[in-house]
Amino acid sequence: MARQAWSEEEEDTLLTNRTSLVDLRVWRTDNGGFHPSYLGVLKHEMQVLFPQACINEIHIEGRIKKWKSDYHKLDAMLRRPEFGWNRNENKLLVENEVWNAFVQDHQHLRHFRDR
Fold this sequence. Notes:
Shape: elongated
Distance between the termini: 26 Å
Strand order of the largest sheet: 1-2
Radius of gyration: 17 Å
Number of strands: 2
């Protein structure tokens, strides 16, 4: 069930709604994960706000997996001393020469700086 790219508004809303479920703690299991039914709650909330988007549980789960994957990649980059983070603009900070050398070996991470 492939879906078109997420709009910024859809993604922001999903993140806000997921964060609110984390804050409620009722959706957390004893081992720290989420109860499986949380995806249905998020799907319902997204369908109410974006009825034309046809967002299902599989789309939500895929977006969350992408966020986790991106987070781990970015975290690994930021552990390197030559990389930094601009909190005001939410952007990766790195000198052009360092970045160009880095992406020679990590082409799959090039999109992190192009954003």
